[in-house]
Amino acid sequence: MVDYSVDRNLAILGINNPPVNALSFHVREGLFNGIKQANADRRVEAIVITGKGKTYCSGADIREFSIPSAGKGLVTLGHRIEDSDKPVISAIHGNALGGGLEIALFSHYRVANKNAKIGFPEVLIGLLPGAEGTIRLPRVTGLAFAMDAIASGRRFDAQEAHKHGILDTICDGDVLQEAKAFSKKIIGQPLDQRRLSKTHVKDAADVDIKFEEALAQIKRKYRGLIAPILCLKSVRNSAKMSFDEAAAEEMRLFGELLTSSQSIGLRYSFFAERSAPKWKLPCGACADNTTPVDVKTTGVIGAGTMGSGIAVCLIRAGIPVILVEKNQKMLDQAIKTISRILTGSVKLNRMTEKQREHSLKLLKGASTLDELAGVDMVIEAVYENLELKREIFHQLDKICKSSTLLCSNTSTLDIDNIASATQRPDKVVGTHFFAPAYIMRLLENVYGTKTSPTTVATVMELGKRIGKICVLVKTCYAFVANRTNQPFGAEASFMVEEGALPQDVDTVLENFGMPMGPFKVSDLSGIDVGWRIRQEVAKALGLKLTLETRYRMGERITTLADRLYEMGRYGIKTGKGWYRYEPTNPRKPIPDPDVAKMIQKHCMDMGIERRNIPAQEVIERCLFSAINESFRVLEQRIAEKPEDIDVIWQYGFSFPRYGGGPMFYASQVGLKKVFEKICIFHEQFPYSSHWVPSDLLRKLASHSTEIPMDKWTQFISSSKL
Ligand SMILES: CCCCCCCC(=O)CC(=O)SCCNC(=O)CCNC(=O)[C@H](O)C(C)(C)COP(=O)(O)OP(=O)(O)OC[C@H]1O[C@@H](n2cnc3c(N)ncnc32)[C@H](O)[C@@H]1OP(=O)(O)O
Ligand SMILES: NC(=O)C1=CN([C@@H]2O[C@H](COP(=O)(O)OP(=O)(O)OC[C@H]3O[C@@H](n4cnc5c(N)ncnc54)[C@H](O)[C@@H]3O)[C@@H](O)[C@H]2O)C=CC1
Question: Would you list the DSSP string of 360-406?
Answer without folding.
Answer: HHTEEEESSGGGGTT-SEEEE---S-HHHHHHHHHHHHHHS-TT-EE
